[in-house]
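User: Predict the structure for this protein chain, please.
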Amino acid sequence: MRRAMRSGLLLAAVLLGGVAAAEEKAVPAPSAEDEIMVLKERAAAFWQARIKRDFRAQWELLEPRIKGRVNADEFMVGRGGVQYLGYQVEDATVTGAFATVKVRVLAQPAAAILGGRRVTPQAALLDDPWIRVGGVWYRRLESDQSSPPGGPAP
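Assistant: Here is the predicted structure, written as structure tokens:
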């Protein structure tokens, strides 16, 4: 009797596990609109961190392979030559695991007065590259090599 009861419990556990696995598989993948919305939210978080000069928050949003090469403190070195005053995430396109987010920024050199002349802020539309790793969007570090017109690297 005990053996039959154990077998029955084992069978019930296996069946319930199968139902749970089937339910997990039934969860639909995010729609293209949802995926772009999440990407835009992550891009907005990155640019908000840029405005706040929160280099640690920026580093957290960078692709994982960079984190193996530089830590947050090393990432901060040499940054801050540009002061970002505003941003607007405009559009995003996704191609497989890669994406480009169009971001309009308002920026000026951190030293806003150069040679006795006040430097006016400049607007630029940037192609901000992102990559999806493990289902999560991260900003590609190579994007830091681009620069808005008339200014140093963002």
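Residues 2-25 form the longest helix (24 residues).
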